[in-house]
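User: Predict the complex.
Assistant: Input components as received:
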Amino acid sequence: MSDHGTDLATTEHGDEPQFPLPPHHARLSDTDPRAAKAAEMQVAIMFGLSAVLTIAFVVVYFAFPTNHFLDLGPFGVVQTSNFLLGITFGLAVLLIGLGAIQWAKKLMADEEIIDERHPVGSPQADQDAAAALFQQGVDESGFVERKIVRRTLIGALALFPIPLVVLLKDMGPMPGDSLDHTIWHKGSRIVVDVTGKPIKPEDLDIGTLVAASPEDLDKVQEVEGNQNARAKASIILVRMRPDEIKSQQGENWDYEGILAFSKICTHVGCPIALYQQRTHALLCPCHQSTFDLSDSGKVVFGPAAREMPQLPITVDSDGYLVAQSDFQQPVGPSFWERS
Amino acid sequence: MTSSSVRRHRATGLVVLLAALVATGVGYAAVTGTAQAAAPAATQTQVDHGRQLFLEGCATCHGMGAQGTQEGPGLIGVGAAAVDFQVSTGRMPLSTPAQQAPRKAPVYNAEEVAALAAYVATLGPGPSIPTDSELSTNDADLATGGTLFRTNCAQCHNFAGRGGALSDGRYAPSLMNATPREIFEAMLTGPQNMPNFPNTTMGIQQKQDIIKYIEHLQTASAPGGLALGSYGPVTEGVAAWTLGLGLLLLAAVWIGAKVR
């Protein structure tokens, strides 16, 4: 073992150092007092400028209203107050940092020293004393003799984690079959999203795209108070010539060339409506999964593993488009319990 | 025995790092939109003139009777609005066959476009060119327009209307140079791969709301300065990583450099 804090490039035994230090080069500011004075001034200017900028920050805060704008040419038009507050505060902090580094690099002592590591273990005497203290505690507490105390304590400690395990129940409840269903049901009217207008088949031309939702969505939202129902029930309606439809997920699920598909990508659930009306391709902007809506919504490109679920539709007695039933498969991305 | 490993108090090695800063410039192809007065009621002279222009410039691809050929779709029933949109924005006539016809300087002047539109309108019923009152956004609601835009347009045309990529080289064009009339006609007719949004499912009022919102996008200033094309995290990420990280690397080199 050796002492700590030797500031020579050798060990105390005078051996050759294991990692010899390179020869020390004195800095200009160590040898030339004028250079040292110049470095001192540089540091002082940085700190001083920082102080000025901090005061400027306060001035700017009160001087410029938030509706004042500044044209920075190629950098666009910026809100003057926002821009100047950021510049002054940012530079004030930066200059403190730069000044400190400059101070350390040019003025603080830069002699190389060796600092030996401390031995890891405690001295033997300390270890013996600690062991004796522990044994004394064991003897005085009667932990060995008083069996009933020892055993009840062990029992109490063994049971203590149980509440933590029980609390895990709050991560539930399990979703049950809620992921398999949406609020679409037999006879739900299909309405235009945002405006809520019910739709007749003649409202759609060939190539029309409509972002749509179920008529009773607002009622459901009031009851449940969340956006899950909206997210799951969002659909798009497209119309193509009936002879362009190569296949569907069920017989007569279209209405005279009008098809309804879920708007939620089967990959990771992005809402998608990038519909190319000539190719009938529905493209997801997140990972480029592409579905052919003229061919059962099957995946023609990208990472999605399952077809886009189709909603069977028809018209009701008043001539408005309605759902024949709920989706016949869960919408959105895959999940563990999905059959 | 204690390890006699040596710790140096000061960094001694000079770190040599090359920080390549890529400055990305975003170029704008400034294409000036052509504002035209709404076409007056078609006269027979106009229709005849349009037919003559059609036979000279369009019939090769669209067929002598506009019934369509292998090269181009039929135009019966597409309406005057489709012709006005395609020809006045220079998308038609096509200069080279491609996945998508780009916007370019129009080949025909306003009078010729009106004649062509009048001729095609006689071939079959289709959407007509929107009138000035249909294009008026005086009663339009900006907030509703924003909601409608985000529901129906933003997925392809980007949240700020800057356009975006589709599949196989197709793309949704930027809306920054689109005039209200072009926007209205595009929604009405669904040019190229864009689906159409007829007045029956998206009413005239809603179209006006959307136009008002797009006009807002075209003129709104970005209080944050450089919008970097409003493409979102891609361009912003490139800027943050190259500029921000580059400056941090330079600072690290400076801190570690040996003072002479």
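Chain B has a mean pLDDT of 83.
Let me know if you want any component modeled separately.
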